[in-house]
Structures are given as structure tokens and as C-alpha cells.
Structures
1.
Amino acid sequence: MFKTLRNAFKIKDLRRRIGFTFLMLIIIRIGAWIKLPGVSKDVYNSLFGNASDSMSLINAMSGGSLENMSIFALSITPYITSSIIIQLLTIAFPRLEEIARDGETGRRFITKITRYVSVGLAILESTAMTIGFGRGGYLTYWGLNVKGILNVITLITVLTAGSTVLMWIGERITDNGVGNGISIVLIINIISRMPQDVKTLFSQFVKGKTIAKGTLAAAIIVAIIVGVVLLVVILQGAERRIPVQYSKKLQGRRTFGGTSTNIPLKVNTGGVMPVIFADSLMQTPVIITAMLGKGQGTSVWDKIMHGLSESYWFNTSAWIYSLGAILYVLLIIAFAYFYTAITFNPLEIADDLKKSGGFIPGIRPGRPTSDYLTSVLNSVIFIGAIGLTIVSIIPIMLNGLFNANVSFGGTSIIIVVGVVIETLQQIESQMMVRNYHGFLSD
């Protein structure tokens, strides 16, 4: 990794792109500390003091902006949700799928729709957040009066503008920086919370202990983190390669084809999306309940919310809430199959192979090839889903058993490792293009 970065700094264009990316990241971190107007200071102690665990994932993805009640409190989540919605609609509507495949023009059209949907979602989310804070008594002015209405309008406008600015910065990083800008915005927010988490772990398990116990605790923590990271790296790079053979064709006096290649099926086909889907589905009602100032009682609804909240899982004093972890695992597996089904079409691949004269050795072209790909894909998806489950559950289990109150978990680690690998690959590919002269050059 360091060798790649060192070599990249030797190229002027890449050095400029890396510098631009760092500049945008600095702007993001500055914005994460600019406070929202009209929010009472008590929000930090009351809201997050009681419900910070249930909002840990959202807060981590916003880089602490949600806890700080900054202008970037919504983070980049509206754009991510918008991208997922448009991707699903592209699969559902053939006309939209046709537009998406229409080269650069289609890509620009889909990007424009994604932006509009993202702004709409930002308005909805900021409105819901503002109303929730208002009902919880966290706003300076609230009610059907001039000051209350102006305060609500101001908050909605600022939150929407903050999310839109992050979307704009992400697109600028994509165009003028390195890697996928939206992913880089997300990763800097997650990384910014990790020093605080390391400090929390040190204070809880190392500080005040004897040298032997402190060293052992630190070694165990480092081993767990390194082990999870290595598992994510293996999961991200693992793939099943299906061999493909192309038949020979005789055109005139020349023979074409006869080459061999393969179809790479990634073990973690859905990436981090199944985990994000599962987290969002389970945490949304918990967050809404917390914003309304509820969820801390003993009613049936409160107990259900405790079961959906990761902070109550694997608690030795209340194992019943760990049933939520079972639902969480099932959702990850279900979404792994669902997301792969909408992004990978075995029938289309089988048809393309048949048209180009390709075939899988031992498998007849057409429908048998599609059935074979589906069978292999189902096995690969299950392995990937189990790997995602292990990576996601281990940090949650340790937090519950040892009461380690940290914001990063399996989801954050998957995102960070995946984005780092993707960014380094893009830097290496750009370096390769700039250093390649071709066979016609001197």
C-alpha cells in the first residue's frame, strides 16, 4: 500500500489528484464540527446519553456529525439510499435499464435522476429529524409560532444543503480525485471515529490494570481487530472462477477463437450492501423511537426495540434480547441473495456466451448453462453471507459480553477495507495507464 502511494506521488497528475482528495476531506471534517442553528445544547447529553448505542452505526457513518448536531448530520446516507433505489428501479423497469446501458448519455441521465432523488430523500429525512427533535424538546424554538416555524424551516434547509454539499464533494472527488468519491466520503467519516474508539478501549481494558493484564488485554484487542480485517480482506478478494472455452471459427483462411477464459464469481457478491440493508431495516424503528424520547421503558414496544438494538445483544443479564441477533443474521443472508439476484443475471450471461460461441466445458449452452451458473452462484452466495455474518457479529458479540462501547463494528470494517482496496486498485490502474507506452512507441 505504502509503495503504491510513494510511486503515485512521483506522477504529477496523480499527486494533484491525491492533494485534491485530501483538501476535500479536510473540508468535510471542518463541516462536521459546524453546529446546527436552533438546536438546544441539551441534545448532546439527553438524546445521545440515553440512546447513543442505538445510533452508533448512523453516527459512525456521519463521522460524529449526528452526535455533534453539525450541518453534515445527515451525512451521505440520502445519496446511498437513492443509488440503491435507482438501481432497483433499473432492474424492475426495462426502459430504465435500456437507458442505463446507453453509454455515457445513459450514465449521465441515471446520475441526474439519482441526484434529484437524493435531494428529495434528504428533505424527507431532515424533516423527520427536525420534527423528532422538536417533539423531544431539543430545539430552541418549537411550536406553531413565527420563531418555531422559522427554526424548523432553517434546520430542514441547512440539513438538506449539508447532505447535498457532501454529494457534490463526493462527485468532485470521483472526477478530480482518486477512487469513488462517495465511498471515500463515507470512509473518512468512519475513520474519524476510530481514535475515540481506541481511546475508549484503552481506558476500559488497559488503563489502571497491571502491566501483565494490560499487555494481555491490548494483545487480545489487536489480535481480534487484525483477525477481523484479514477475514474481510480474504472475503473481498475470494472468488470462484468458472472456466469458459470458445470454439474455433474459420473465416477465409484464418482461424479465430479457441481461447480459454473464466467467469469470476466473487464470494462476497453483494459487498457490504446486505449488512447495510439489514442494519438499516432493524435500526430505523429504534432511531425513530429514540428521537421521540421513548424506548427506555418496560412496555412491550420498548422491549421489542431493545431486541432490535445491537447494544442489548449478548448481554449476560438479559439473553432474551439476543434473539434479535438471529433475525439480524437471517436478514443478512436474505439480502445477500436478494442483492445478488438484482445485480447478476445468469440467464443473460448464458445467452451472451451462446451468441459469442463460448461454453462451459461439460455443460450444454443455453438453459443448462444458466441453471449451472445459478447453482454455483447460490453456493458461493451462501459462503459469502456466512462470512459477512461472522464479520458483523464478532464485534457486536464482544461489545455485548465485555461492554465495550465503541462505534465501529463489522459493517464499518467491511466498508473501510473494501474502499481502501478499491482506491489502491484504481491508483495502480492509473499508474499503469500513465506508464504504458504501447508497442508502437520507441
2.
Amino acid sequence: MINKRLLIKNLLAHNDENSFYDKKRKIDINQKEGKAKFLKHVCALSNSNPKNNSYIVIGVEDEDNTIIGVDFFDDSKIQNLINAYFNNPPIVQYENIPFPHLPDDKVVGLVTIRPKKGLTSLKKNIWKYYGGSVFFRDGSMSMPKVFKSDIKDVNSKIVEAIENHSQNNIKHTLDGVFDFMKKRQDYNPKYLIFKEYFVLCWAGEKKEVKDQTYYSRVDIELVNEQVRLFFSTLDEVSITYNDNSFTIIEYLQLGLQNSYKYYPLEKTIINFNDNVSYNIESTLLFNPPQFDKKILHHIFNNNNVILEKLKKGKTLNNIELKDLNNLPDTYLICYLNLFHEALDKLNEAKPYLKQYPEIYRKHKQVFRILRKVKYN
């Protein structure tokens, strides 16, 4: 089993960007340009490596390989995005890899691209790239090229050697458990063993609501691979497990005018198999709550007034500051109730909410929810 943290270190140490490996400071697939560039790199790496995995490491400075990290990105539907835009799509996995020196809310993103037999191409237009485009790696660049049938397999042995040097061992596993238990000691950390092989650590702040147990500030890591499976400072989740699986159900607390309810968002089951493998199944459970349209029109217009004041640098009064705290969530509710312009307003608000860290975290959470709903 590959230790993904060690794999990232070996990739960074072994090579600069090349035809099987790319690195990025960050990606943004919420915006059309960022999504298009990400798809271009996936396409190029897949086509340039028909017989081996290729990788994108996210959260690294390009000049000196300094690991700065990015936000936890739990988009379990990323394969749906790949399938939506590619002919002959590769298998793509996005994983969140914690590093000890990073803050709790930062990880390094690792994208693993496993090609299928045949050529990968865009099936439809996106940004400035046309449907039918084919990309390959030219050194460290992803470039559109005319397909040539004689793609040389020059990377398989190199990638195999890097992956072999990144295999897990008992020391890495024990160090990972000890690090987790120490770092998460404020939130009742636990470890579980599945199939006498897999070590899963988890922690969360427990609370009881109407005879239902929820956890917040939840952190879940599969220590064997040094992969963070779940992290959130905002969500409420329920957790159950047995000898073969670990199940997480995420809930959203949504509502208007100080009346809130918990709505199930997504169910994730991590299944551990007898053949020393595991798989993750995610099912979207979310049914958007419906609210009175007159109330929503009032809230939508009120949010727009607050956003315009932010754009002009005007001071908000106490009532407006209170409404600002709920602005991402209420725009989300409006959008889910077919106020389509609310999505544009959420995008407009992004740069102006960065000065309010808690509200900005809510804003990022809203887009995470929208990704899940869109690509389900």
C-alpha cells in the first residue's frame, strides 16, 4: 500500500514538472477557466502516460517546492466531472494528504490519473478549448497536439520506482497514529482496526440533539495511506461503524428567520475488504428545502443591498452585519429555490467576504455543497 505523503515527497524530490507529474499552487474548478485548465492537464497527462499512473500535486510553490497546502477538498463527484467532459475518460482520484507542519484546515491535494486504453479528448467546448481537442504533455506544458499513434512508453519504469519507494511500513503507520492522537487530543481521538490491516483514526466534538448524536469538527484519516478522508469545522455528521465498514452521514443546518433544521446531505461508506483493499461509496441524500417565495424575494433583495455596500466599501450597520453572517447560506437557499441569479451573486461576493474569515468559510462550504449537487 502506498503512503501518499511519502509519494508526494518522492515526486517533489525526484523531478521537476514533466510528462507524468505536474504541480500547482492551487486549482479552482468553481470557475470555468480553472475547471478548463484542470481538465486540460488531466487530459494531457492521461494521453502522455498510457501505461502508468500520472499525478498532479496541489498546494506547492512552483519555484522552490515549498509545501503551503490548500483547503480540504472532499469532492467525491470529481469522476463525474471527468466523465461529463471527456471521451474515453481516465480514472481520476483526488485525495487530501495531511502534513504535520500545515494548519489543521490545510492539506496537500493529490490527483492520481489512471489512463484507459485509447485516446482521451474533450467531448464539448469549455472556456477557450473546443470539443474534440486532444492534449499531450510537452515537457512541463500541457499542449494541444495532433494525435500520433507511436506514443513511446518512457515513464513506466520511473513511476514504478517512485511508487515502490513510497510503500507504507509499520513505522509510518505507528507514527501516523501517534501524530493524530496528539494533534486531535481536544476532540476525543480514537483509532479503529479493520481486517487486521487498515488503521483508521477519527475525532470529533460530540453533541446530542433530540436523541440524535452528532459530531462537529470531525477529522478522519486512513493512516495506512496518510489520506485524510474527511475534515470539517462546520458540518454536523453522524458516525457508525462495524467490523467491515465506517459510515459517515453529513447534515446541513439550514433555515430562515432563526428557524433551522438538519437536512441530510451525503452518506459515505468506507468498505474494507478481505483482499487488503477498500472502496468508498458516496450517495447524495439532499432534498433542497422549499420556502415561501415572498420571503425569499425579500431576503434575496436584502442580500443584494448588503453586497452592493460591500463593493462600495460602505460601513454596515448592526442588523446588516447580522444578515451578512447568513449571506452565503441564504443565497444558497435562494438558488436551491430556483433563484438562479443567486449563484452569480455568490461568485460576486467572494472577494469581499475574505475580510470576514468565518463568513468566508461558510462561502466555501456553500460551493462544496453545490459541487456535490451538480455532479451527482
